[in-house]
Amino acid sequence: MSVEIERKFLIRLPDLAKIVSLPGCRVRRIVQTYLEKIPGKKIQRRVRRIREGGRVEYFFTQKEDLSGYSRIENEWVISKEEYEAYLTEAVSRLEKTRYAFPWEGHVMEIDVYPYEIGGDGLVGQAVLEVELGEEGEAFAIPDFIEVERELTGTKEFSNMSMAKRL
Q1: What angle do CA 8, 119, 141 make, to 5 degrees?
Q2: pLDDT in tens, 115-125
Q3: Of 5, 23, 53, 80, which sees the most CB atoms within 10 A?
Q4: Domain boundaries of the chain, sorted by first residue
Q5: What is the pTM of this model?
Q6: Alpha-carbon span 141 to 130, nearest angstrom
Q7: What is the DSSP letter of 132?
Q8: What is the pLDDT of residues 18-52, one digit of tens each?
């Protein structure tokens, strides 16, 4: 079990060729499927298929909110067969491409979605996430990323909410 502390921002779609050229940049294609809730529990469950180059991995994740910035997160690798079995509990799904690169002691993750989401757009936009060690920790957003507004704690732009609107 770990505590996930992150800040999230709506950004203008950056020059992806520039992002990919940054030292340490990783590009992953992610299919994220949200699962039925467990009755009486406020736990978000999902499975992911992550493709990076020719490699594919599968993950199961459970999250529980602590605050607008923090959540308890449990995640582990599962087999392809376990992943496919969980898909029978699917309630919503989304796909995205994640560009992750180190920047001044943090990892910047830019999620680009290949479609318009629920009429809300995201055409020409993306979502930037920065994981932190503690709430209130200082970090720097690269000057080549244009922030439109902060989304931290905004449910309408959580991946689960966007998946439901698709």
Answers
A1: 20
A2: 665 555 566 78
A3: 5
A4: 2-165
A5: 0.89
A6: 9
A7: E
A8: 999 999 999 999 999 999 988 888 889 999 999 99
